[in-house]
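ok, trying the design again with the full structure, not the truncated one.
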């Protein structure tokens, strides 16, 4: 029996770092063997943040829709 890991919440947002650059932040929660764990990753590029989101969405439970799991919030508008 393998380990089952599913993304249950994914949130993509932006913020401005102290140097004035846009930072992409992916906050996500995964359920693994009935336990939930949350993580935060910071990205300098939108492409890398969106790639992580794509990979996490592929790991969601098939019965859940993207809208149930994923949200976005633009705190700082990217240039």
């Amino acid at each position: 029996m393998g380990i089952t890991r599913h993304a249950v919440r994914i949130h993509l947002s932006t913020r401005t770092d102290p140097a004035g650059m846009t930072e992409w932040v992916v906050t996500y929660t995964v359920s693994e063997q009935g336990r939930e764990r949350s993580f935060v990753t910071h990205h300098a590029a939108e492409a890398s943040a969106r790639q992580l989101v794509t990979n996490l969405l592929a790991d969601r439970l098939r019965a859940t829709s993207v809208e149930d799991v994923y949200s976005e919030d633009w705190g700082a508008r990217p240039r």
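Keeping the full-length input from now on. The longest strand covers residues 5-16.
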